[in-house]
């Protein structure tokens, strides 16, 4: 009688010991009813152990290898999708204003000329460059975007370029932190994109100094049309020309960066 009473305990110990030795497996054994005979429990455990052994032996077969490869491919694809969603999706956090200003204040050899090519066929310059018709012709400029248009600013306009094979696009903007330049981000970016897509298209974007208003429009273009973050756009432009958008324009670019980052991708 004592041996019969201890038999279920011994059976449980046997199965638990086997299960501990195979803790990496994704299956377990459960005693569904206390009335189940101990011998039946041991037979069930041995049967499951044999089945699992066959599974491990079959794992080396070509079919199993193919399934594992497919599973890994799906896993890596899923992880890449999650990583992209973290960067471009709702988890994206735009940089702070202070970090952007520190990025703009990094000391580097001076690259401030009257005009610089900051992206293929896209030039950033000042009022002097915009008025130098011979230089524009020499560079093959086909489109001019004036972000300081107006009577009391860089008053060129379409008449100024009459006789030259180029198109003029004017934005009357003030270099003031309270001026809302963001309303021009999308139309200006679309205009620049269309200009660059035209045959032999080469675009000059300028304001008075070529560091704030025009630089902000170029940054917005790179973010909207070239799938860049704000930091990436600043680094791209600063590799060719020193820029310094005012604090108000930087905040407007932050808003744009945040909106683009929260979508499924950039526009």
UniProtKB/TrEMBL annotation:
Q: Under which name does UniProt file this protein? A: Dual specificity protein phosphatase 13 isoform B-like
- Domain Tyrosine-protein phosphatase spans what residues? 114-262
Hydrolase as a keyword of this entry, yes or no, is yes
For this protein, the record's PROSITE patterns field holds: TYR_PHOSPHATASE_1, TYR_PHOSPHATASE_2, TYR_PHOSPHATASE_DUAL
| Known catalytic reactions | O-phospho-L-threonyl-[protein] + H2O = L-threonyl-[protein] + phosphate; O-phospho-L-seryl-[protein] + H2O = L-seryl-[protein] + phosphate
Q: Which GO terms describe its biological process?
A: negative regulation of MAPK cascade
Q: Which residues form the Tyrosine specific protein phosphatases domain?
A: 183-241
Family membership: Belongs to the protein-tyrosine phosphatase family. Non-receptor class dual specificity subfamily.
Per UniProt, the keywords (alphabetical) are: Hydrolase, Protein phosphatase
Q: Active-site residues?
A: 207 (phosphocysteine intermediate)
Q: Which organism is it from?
A: Dipodomys ordii
The lineage, from the top, is: Eukaryota, Metazoa, Chordata, Craniata, Vertebrata
Q: What is an example of a GO molecular function annotated in this UniProt entry? A: protein serine/threonine phosphatase activity
The cellular component terms of Gene Ontology attached to this UniProt record, alphabetical and capped at eight, are: cytoplasm
């Amino acid at each position: 009688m004592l041996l019969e009473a201890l038999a279920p305990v011994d059976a449980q110990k046997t199965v638990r010991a086997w299960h501990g030795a195979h803790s990496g497996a994704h299956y377990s054994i459960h005693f569904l009813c206390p009335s189940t005979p101990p011998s039946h429990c041991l037979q069930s455990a041995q049967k499951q152990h044999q089945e699992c052994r066959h599974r491990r032996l079959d794992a080396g077969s070509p079919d199993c290898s193919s399934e594992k490869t497919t599973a890994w491919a799906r896993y890596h694809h899923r992880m890449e999708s999650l990583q992209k969603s973290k960067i471009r999706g709702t988890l994206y956090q735009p940089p702070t204003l202070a970090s952007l200003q520190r990025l703009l204040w990094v000391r580097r050899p001076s690259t401030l000329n009257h005009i610089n090519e900051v992206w293929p066929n896209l030039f950033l310059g000042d009022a002097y460059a915009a008025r130098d018709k011979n230089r524009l012709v020499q560079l093959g400029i086909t489109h001019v975007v004036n972000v300081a248009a107006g009577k009391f600013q860089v008053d060129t306009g379409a008449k100024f370029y009459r006789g030259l094979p180029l198109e003029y696009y004017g934005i009357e903007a003030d270099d003031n932190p309270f001026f809302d330049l963001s309303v021009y981000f999308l139309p200006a970016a679309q205009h620049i994109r269309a200009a660059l897509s035209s045959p032999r298209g080469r675009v000059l974007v300028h304001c008075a100094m070529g560091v704030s208003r025009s630089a902000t429009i170029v940054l917005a273009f790179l973010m909207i049309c070239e799938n860049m973050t704000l930091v990436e756009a600043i680094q791209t432009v600063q590799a060719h020309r020193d820029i310094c958008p005012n604090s108000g324009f930087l905040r407007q670019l932050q808003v744009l960066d945040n909106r683009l980052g929260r979508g499924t991708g950039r526009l």
